Amino acid sequence: MFKAFLIKYGEIGIKGKNRHLFEDALIHQIKYALKPVEGEFLISKEQGRIYIEAQTEYDYEETVESLKRVFGIVGICPVVLVPDQGFEQLASDVIAYLDKRYPDKNKTFKVNARRAKKSYPMSSMEVNAALGERILDAFPEFKVDVHHPDIMVNVELRGQINIYSEVIPGPGGMPVGTNGKGMLLLSGGIDSPVAGYMIAKRGVKIDAVYFHAPPYTSERAKQKVVDLARLVARYTGPIYLKVVNFTDIQMYIYEECPHEELTIIMRRYMMRIAEHFAQETGSLGLITGESIGQVASQTMQSLAATNEVCTMPVYRPLIGFDKQEIIELSEKIGTYETSILPYEDCCTIFVAKHPVTKPNLKIIRRSETHLEEKIDEMVKKAIDTTETIRVE
Ligand code: ATP
Ligand code: MG
User: Fold this and answer.
1) Which of 183, 184, 192, 345 to mutate to test the pocket of ligand 1 (most atoms within 8 A of CB)?
2) CB-count exposure of residue 184 (10 Å: 0-12, 13-18, 19+)
3) Whose alpha carbon is nearest atom 22 of ligand 1?
4) For residue 342, how far is its CA from the centre of ligand 1 (angstroms)?
């Protein structure tokens, strides 16, 4: 029954001269989200509204599901657009709409008219009263409830008239691309895909880096990370995923440094390499899935030790989340099932029985001196041999 959608977006922070940037980014992301959906759509903006009009037959459910993944959208309203041909025609259009949309007439309603076109000959209040009366005449079972109506009959009087009564919640946030770019350290776990989602929700575009350690981590483990990136890309748009061959560096740290410090030192090298790529590709910060105290390498002391090697800000959007909360979010965004596939992770293979939980920076730095210049060559080689995969 619907050939169009009215898209509502948040107003805060987008007034003034940034507004068109926000709207253009939102339209760009809507187009991306609708690309795989069956059907052709025309997307337009008009006075603080974005309209999506189907030009062909299309899949309603799939369209709504895709729009629910576009950050910046607050509400998705399936809308009937009618030309302004006077009040009589409007009344019969609204009645036809309600009849079709609500076969069960045992409902309460309220008319909410809004006049964007000030030349409309009736005031909003007059339209509310007159339309309400017509609806009651047409459907005597309907009742008016001005406080908690089952159906809010929205009628926007513009160049054309918008009739809608449903607002399907969108994900909120800001359109991806309106707040710069960040480099996500993406592992095959539960947390980092969620961290990417959370940052992207605030309008940040994302690239990703994955540290791969063949043959200790298999081709399937890598594929799992690519699959996770693809799931995150449903929300963020295309992701450039860097796959770094980390085996030599990891083995060398394992040989030269105390085992209980391995994870921290390894993490410091991951951050250094991630920062290199972030600088090279214009990212303004690093993003990880860490949360305080979750494991030995995420205590306040460990995070400080990891952070020390970066000059860029490190964003940790899950910092105050419990594991259960992160799991629930990952289920909601659809990454959980992939994250729990059992393929090994480079961090679990060499993990020490008793890793340090309160690393001392001086000691960590001293251990790293055992690596000498050879590690710089290894880092350079890892960077030079990194594979970049475009995921969407
Ligand atoms: P996740 O579920 O995201 O793997 P985790 O709870 O397993 O997290 P750690 O293994 O300690 O935690 O990793 C902490 C963070 O470091 C991850 O969220 C991720 O951002 C980054 N990270 C860890 N391993 C890798 C890797 N192999 N490649 C890229 N980033 C990684
Ligand atoms: Mg992990």
Assistant:
1) 192
2) buried
3) 187
4) 15
